[in-house]
Design goal:
There is one protein chain. This protein is α/β, with parallel strands linked by helices. The chain has one domain: Alkaline Phosphatase, subunit A (3-Layer(aba) Sandwich), CATH 3.40.720. Helix content is 31%, strand content 12%. The chain has twelve helices and 15 strands. Strand 1 and strand 2 form a beta hairpin. InterPro entries: DUF1552, TAT_signal.
């Protein structure tokens, strides 16, 4: 590797008077040992409380059932997911997958195992195992400044069967999630100098100063990389402006009031801004090749906290309460509206990746990223038939534009539909589902990890 390449590797920083910002990956100074390898990325977004699944006999079924109608290619999105229609050829929707060890666990206790597949159980002794993202982080972490990015709206680790993180290490211990945008921003993009973060935080001209210093660097870059650097700095500036307002939202105490009045207590744009800022931080982390593995948990199961207020963004009360109110007037519509908002923000994120070309010309960022959005519950805390959407991964071998149904006996996704009480999850479900771990093996292999098993299950998921 040349001295020039070594000086401007993927871990390089743009510096100026004590402030430093991680540089994006650029072809001009890419590590020679990795020059022919476009980064492969993985991100998992988890949302608690499942989705709306009204019965076919319910008038709400046509518009507000989460799963599409139709076949593999000719599927029709309901109002819950129709915001993803422009990205139809970039997404895949799955049904008939779940973790066997969790199928008899109440939905309030199942988030811990979503990315691990471990038999954490609903009570008694607790032992978890390594999560999918951390298996990949062990492989890809050697190429990046951070082995993984772990985020959630509530932050920290939570407790057993009440995790506030989706990431678990090799010993099954939870990895604390970050939930404060400024903390995440500084962790990812500001050098370890004692006062660098403070200077960037308090100086409105910090980025201007860095941009000024980038001019000298620009003379060493190809025209393509000059455009990449400008795009990156513009995105960082835009995100920095949003941080203060987003931080106000996460620091706002949860009000102790009746949930029907929650939407009156804060501006909806604050919740929406927070959501978008967290996604933007993942985008910037990937763009700068600061990490190739990320998780974002939108909230813990059965818990109050910042995540319960995200539904304010669509003018509704507590997010968790929406699942318990589906039989009330407009109940299915309200839950579907919130699920639609979740899909909309995920769509905004994957569109961002799609609109950003890779520096080496190997497609766009979405082509080399497997993005997954899902929950460990379907209807009313039922730990079956996980509602999962994936996006991207074209250059990893994933073929999108499909609705893939697995298992036997639930072709129309009516198993567990209409459940509105805990009697539902305790009942026997007469369907066969496939282990979600088989999809995880497929993902790991296509990300470059040599393995044929995950969580004790061997083999890949066919047709993916």
């Amino acid at each position: 590797m040349s001295d020039q390449s070594q000086a401007f590797s993927r871990r390089a920083f743009l510096r100026g008077t004590g402030v430093a910002l991680a540089l994006p990956w650029m072809e001009t100074f890419a590590d020679q040992t990795q020059a022919d390898q476009t980064p492969r990325r993985f991100v998992s977004v988890y949302h608690p409380d499942g989705v709306g699944l009204p019965l076919k006999t319910d008038p709400a079924w046509k518009d507000w059932s989460w799963f599409p109608r139709g076949g593999e290619r000719d599927f029709v999105l309901t109002k819950v997911l129709d915001t993803l229609e422009p990205l139809r050829n970039d997404i895949t929707i799955y049904s008939g997958l779940s973790h066997p060890a969790a199928r008899q666990v109440h939905g309030h206790s199942n988030a811990d195992q979503y990315l691990t597949g471990a038999a954490t159980g609903g009570h008694g002794p607790y032992k978890n195992s390594i999560s999918l993202d951390q298996v990949y982080a062990e492989y890809a972490g050697k190429f990046t400044r951070h082995s993984s990015l772990v985020m959630s709206t509530n932050g920290g680790v939570g407790g057993p069967r009440g995790a506030q993180t989706q990431s678990f290490n090799r010993e099954g211990r939870p990895i604390p999630a970050m939930n404060k945008p400024k903390q995440i921003f500084d962790t990812l993009f500001v050098a370890s100098s004692k006062d660098a973060a403070a200077k960037l935080a308090r100086s409105k001209s910090s980025l201007d100063m860095l941009i000024e210093n980038s001019r000298a660097l620009g003379r060493k870059l190809s025209k393509h990389d000059q455009a990449t650097l400008k795009q990156y700095l513009d995105a960082v500036r835009d995100t920095e402006v949003k941080l203060a307002k987003a931080q106000q939202w996460i620091d706002t105490p949860v009000p102790q009031v009746d949930t029907q009045f929650l939407h009156l207590d804060a501006e909806p744009k604050e919740a929406r801004l927070y959501f978008q800022t967290m996604y933007e931080l993942i985008y910037l982390a990937f763009m700068s090749d600061s990490t190739r593995a990320a998780t974002f948990q939108l909230g813990r199961e059965n818990g109050e906290g910042p995540h319960d207020l995200l539904a304010r963004a669509v003018g509704l009360g507590g997010a968790h309460g929406l699942t318990h109110a589906v039989k009330q007037p407009k109940g299915w519509e309200n839950l579907g509206t919130y699920n639609r908002y979740q899909a909309e923000e995920f769509g905004r994120f994957i569109k961002r990746l799609k609109d950003t070309d890779e520096p080496d010309g190997n497609g766009n960022m979405l082509d080399n990223t497997f993005a997954m959005h899902g929950s460990a519950s379907s209807s009313f805390h039922l730990s079956r038939n996980y509602p999962i959407i994936s996006a991207g991964g074209k250059n990893l071998g994933f073929e999108n534009g499909r609705y893939l149904k697995f298992g036997v006996g639930n072709e129309d996704n009516q198993a567990g539909a209409g459940i509105t009480s805990d009697a539902g999850w305790r009942g026997k479900v007469e369907i066969e589902e496939l282990p979600l771990a088989n999809l995880f093996v497929t993902i790991l292999q296509r990300l470059g990890v040599e393995t044929d098993s995950f969580a004790g299950y061997t083999g890949t998921l066919k047709r993916v």
